[in-house]
């Protein structure tokens, strides 16, 4: 028996910052910082009191990640060797917050693509890894800016926030508590990245995505039926960010590296790949879907090696670019937005009846799967 309310993805939206940083530009900035640091600390380095910093290279970045460029909201200060962090004027409380601003832009595109008016939307979920503030919720600010009645709230499950948001929205639809829900993921990840860390200075980029989840009875003719969703979390310290209002109260700890993004990359690779692969296969079995029959995988854009192995385990063969498209090379890791960007940019060519998988994974550990089928 079919449920009364069936959730679907009616449309998606994407906001991409105008400015982009190439690997060549990033390496030039980082290496200048390294040279200056080593020169300033030459005596301490010679005495064995300070470890010298090693330069980065384009070859190292592309081999380690597959990333070639990333979009950012503030390019000049990130590339300034004396700053190496995003900077912009703080806005008054009466002005639209920068995170809300980019979220609104992505949301408006999703609404336009679905032919939907903001008055038709019942709820806004702001699902992202790094909120601009604790409260008021970013979702409520976005809700007001769009002119949406109903409710909104923020949720954070790191890089899996968007898929967790999609399942939450789908559950609201199934329960009849909403007919149309916007899941918005504004990610200014340049703000939580340590641009002075050789092992991670190249990873992240800025972006915002929106996913409109609706009841099938009101969806446009062309949409994506949500066949099933599954979420999983396993605690791990291997990806961590200790920034928060409690430790910011102590200036002496404010500049510690663990107050920004840190990870044990090799451990993450070793532990997350089998966890996510098995999760996908288990959910496909539950839904009675042949994983090798999936037309396309829209995987989290964190590392090309991880995606290659996960896709191989799911499809049973080495996936080509058509089967598992990559946006990592030009966007970098955009946390929760990555798999949605891939879906947004690489889904229009699929035929009615084609099935695919939106999948995210990241800190927590957290992982989310959304199996979909093209309708219309």
Please explain how this structure is put together.
- The protein has 376 residues and is an alpha+beta fold.
- It has a domain at 225-375: 3-Layer(aba) Sandwich (Peroxisomal Thiolase, Chain A, domain 1), CATH 3.40.47.10.
- 33% of the residues lie in helices and 22% in strands.
- The protein contains 11 helices and 13 strands.
Task: List its traits.
Peroxisomal Thiolase, Chain A, domain 1; globular; alpha+beta; 22% strand; 376 residues; single chain; nine-stranded mixed β-sheet
SSE inventory with pairings:
Layout: E1 7-15, E2 19-22, H1 23-40, H2 42-46, H3 58-65, E3 69-72, H4 75-79, H5 98-114, E4 123-127, H6 138-146, E5 151-155, H7 161-175, E6 180-188, E7 206-215, E8 223-233, E9 239-240, E10 262-263, H8 265-286, E11 296-299, H9 304-315, H10 328-331, H11 338-345, E12 355-362, E13 366-375
Parallel strand pairs: 4-5, 4-6, 11-12
Antiparallel strand pairs: 1-7, 1-8, 2-3, 6-7, 8-13, 9-10, 12-13
Overall average pLDDT: 95
Give the class-level CATH name of the domain at 225-375: Alpha Beta
Radius of gyration: 21 Å
Tally of alpha and pi helices: 11
Largest sheet: 9 strands, mixed
**Element string (H = helix, E = strand):** EEHHHEHHEHEHEEEEEHEHHHEE
Helix content: 25-40%
CATH architectural category of the domain at 225-375: 3-Layer(aba) Sandwich
Compute the number of strand runs: 13
Sequence stretches where pLDDT stays below 50 over 5 or more residues: none
Strand order of the largest sheet: 5-4-6-7-1-8-13-12-11
Q: What's the gist of this structure?
A:
By secondary structure, the protein is α+β, with helices and mostly antiparallel strands. The protein has a domain at about 225-375: Thiolase/Chalcone synthase (Peroxisomal Thiolase, Chain A, domain 1). The chain has a 9-stranded mixed sheet with strand order 5-4-6-7-1-8-13-12-11, with helices on both faces. Strands 2-3 form a two-stranded antiparallel sheet.
